């Protein structure tokens, strides 16, 4: 497997992959940072070009996951790596609590230790659920949603594609949040939020309209 990225969040994904005993032939990808090269932790090769990644997929293992936060960037990397034959792959910690009934976790999702997902929850592709995040019953999370540490999403909420829910934020039940929305850390969302919005505060208020996404 390739973990796309070799800093920050990629190291957290590494811990989950290690828990799952899937480190055989594991490599990282970083073509941006000049200070990252050789082997990460003196063990895992760092791939520096898309051509090298393509060769890895053809000759070693065609799986990849994304070790970088930011929903927009994750979507672009997903496009790049599937285009060269990669298979988007989830990493779900054994220390996460996932409901037994009517739960679907989309491919390429990264679910970290301490995450708690209730029954009847649907999660799109490429999501991130950080430490101690909670998603309660009958929620729907779109593609490439990022739920930060300690955030809570209460029952029957709908979270649109490419949203970021900040650390320790709370989304009250029956709330619908549009696409490309950022909820600030510690905010409490008490009413629906339109697309392309930045929300902060208690209760949460839209303070800025974001530029629509263009992939």
Shape: globular
Q: Please state the CA-atom Rg, rounded to the nearest Å.
A: 17 Å
Helix content: 10-25%
Class from secondary-structure proportions: alpha/beta
User: Which spans have pLDDT < 50 for at least 5 consecutive residues?
Assistant: none
Across the major sheet, the strand order is 7-10-13-16-19-22-24-25
- Let me know the largest β-sheet: 8 strands, mixed
What is the string of helix and strand elements? EHEEEHEHEEEEEEEEEEEEEEEEEEEE
Residue-averaged pLDDT, rounded? 97
End-to-end span in angstroms? Answer: 26 Å
Summed up, the helix count is 3
Strand content: 25-35%
Instruction: Kindly state the number of beta strands.
Output: 25
How would you describe the overall organization of this protein?
The protein is of the alpha/beta class. It is built from three helices and 25 strands. A hairpin with a 3-residue loop joins strand 3 and strand 4. The radius of gyration is 17 Å and the shape is globular.
